[in-house]
Write a structure and sequence with these properties.
The protein has one helix spanning 2-34; strands spanning 49-59, 65-77, 82-86, 89-94, 97-109, 116-127, 133-144, 149-160, 163-173, 178-189. It is of the alpha+beta class and 194 residues long. The chain has two domains: 1-32; 49-189, Sandwich (lipopolysaccharide transport protein A fold). Strands 1, 2, 3, 4, 5, 6, 7, 8, 9 and 10 form a ten-stranded antiparallel beta sheet that branches. The longest helix is centred in the N-terminal third of the chain and has 33 residues, at 2-34.
């Protein structure tokens, strides 16, 4: 009889341990189901707008164009209010001056549209009133179109009528037509204008 009691006690301990394990597992599973998921759900990351051959022109208070943004395509994401662009092309108009033209492989418009990030290879072009060409080649340019200001910390090559200038980092004050290379500036110049 003592042997039967010992087996019954061992079996009872096993059953209690098994029931405890089942209870803890059920509680953990219930906690995972009811816990809010971190981050943004897959549905919220879905775009709410897609446009092919996107074109937008912004004007000043007098109705004069300030800038025109074009892209092969644009996709807007509502969860962070950003827009991605393929092959963006930006025209920055200047009062009494010829415009700047900027194109890139890809682009991103930040929320409220105050900043445009041009990603991959970026090309800027400008011609002054005397027909002198200026080209800027770089990567990953950040532009503030309303302020006509652009910057990058990448390598920059500037081609102009007197030669070529290289550097790292650029601040471009486009309204004034002033470009500043930040470091490692080197140039190759031909004193006779082309």
């Amino acid at each position: 009889m003592v042997i039967i009691g010992r087996n019954l006690a061992q079996e009872s301990v096993k059953i209690v341990a098994l029931l405890t394990l089942v209870g803890i597992s059920w509680w953990l599973l219930d906690q995972n189901r009811s816990a809010p998921s971190e981050g943004v759900s897959d549905d919220a990351q879905e775009p709410d707008a897609f446009i092919r051959d996107f074109v937008a022109t912004t004007t000043d208070n007098a109705g004069r164009p300030q800038y025109r943004l074009e892209a092969q395509s644009m996709v807007h994401y509502p969860h962070n209010d950003t827009s991605e662009m393929e092959k963006p092309y930006l025209t920055l108009y200047r009062e009494d001056e010829l415009p700047w033209y900027v194109r890139a492989e890809r682009g991103l418009i930040a929320p409220q549209g105050e900043t445009v990030f041009l990603l991959g290879k970026v090309y800027m072009e400008h011609e002054d009133g005397r027909g002198r060409q200026l080209q800027v080649h770089t990567h990953d340019l950040e532009i503030y179109p309303d302020d006509q200001y652009a910057e990058t910390d990448q390598k920059v090559t500037i081609l102009h009528d007197l030669g070529t200038t290289h550097g790292i980092g650029l601040e471009a004050f486009l309204r004034e037509g002033r470009l500043s290379l930040l470091t490692n500036v080197k140039g190759e110049y031909d004193p006779t204008p082309k």
